[in-house]
Amino acid sequence: MILNTADIDSNAGAMIVRNIDVLQAALDYMNERMGDLFDGPVTAIFSEALKAEGWDGKAGETIMEGLWVASADWRVPREDADDRIDHLIWLEFYTSGEEHDPWVSIFAGSGERQVFLRLGTQIKQRALARAMANNPDVLVRLNSLDLHLDGDAFYLPIEFDREALANGFAEEDLTDAIAPLAAALRRVMDAKGLMKSLSGVIDSAMKPTPR
């Protein structure tokens, strides 16, 4: 059951005061140690994907440093810098919620918080919507991977089992608990034909329309 502030009885205030030391210790542990335990296995998923495929991307030592992957097939040379390569599309780790939310509340899916794979694109919302309207077969195939269009990107929501997360914290190893993230990333990366089609659609949409 998901609770919000309005669901908490006002009498809880007295209980909080009486147990403030225990509550503070729990909050400190949640914000520090529990947060740290996510960094290793989450960044390893992206690091292993980059090494296995020889893809472009970034996998820092912490989640906050940014995590993304992009195939060489999705590259587009930029004219504004000789040594700069961008991508028509790319896959990145993304979450909903607020910046200050602890990782455990996001991975556990508390309230509106959730983890996603975000398939970003080079074009803006209207252009992308128009491109998908002109290529409905590509959109249907993306939806079959649970990637759904929202604004200027596609989002794949990822759910984690709370009991598996709890067991992971008990063992101080979240590798198994966050396996759905690795599976989702692999599923999209393996859809090479679909991703090639999408990058072609984006490339076409970026080119100026002849008058």
Structural notes for this entry:
This protein is of the alpha+beta class and 211 residues long. The chain has one domain. Helix content is 48%, strand content 18%. A six-stranded antiparallel beta sheet has the order 1-2-5-6-8-7. Strands 3-4 form a two-stranded antiparallel sheet. The longest helix is centred in the N-terminal third of the chain and has 34 residues.
Compact overview of the structure:
The chain is an alpha+beta fold and 211 residues long.
Helix count from the secondary structure assignment: 8
Structural class: alpha+beta
Strand content: 15-25%
Q: Biggest sheet: strands, sense, closure? A: 6 strands, antiparallel
Q: N-to-C SSE series? A: HHEEEEEHEHHEEHHH
The count of strands amounts to 8
- Categorize the overall geometry: elongated
What is the typical, i.e. mean, pLDDT? 87
Q: Give unreliable regions as ranges.
A: none
Order of strands, widest sheet = 1-2-5-6-8-7
What percent of residues adopt helix (DSSP H or I)?
40-55%
Q: Radius of gyration in whole Å, from Cα?
A: 20 Å
For the record, the count of structural domains works out to 1
Tell me the distance between the termini.
57 Å
Essential attributes:
alpha+beta; six-stranded antiparallel β-sheet; 8 strands; two-stranded antiparallel ribbon; 211 residues; 8 helices
Provide the fold topology.
Elements: H1 12-18, H2 20-53, E1 56-59, E2 67-70, E3 75-77, E4 85-87, E5 89-96, H3 103-107, E6 114-121, H4 125-134, H5 136-144, E7 148-150, E8 153-158, H6 162-171, H7 179-190, H8 192-206
Antiparallel strand pairs: 1-2, 2-5, 3-4, 5-6, 6-8, 7-8
Helix pairs in contact: 2-7, 4-8
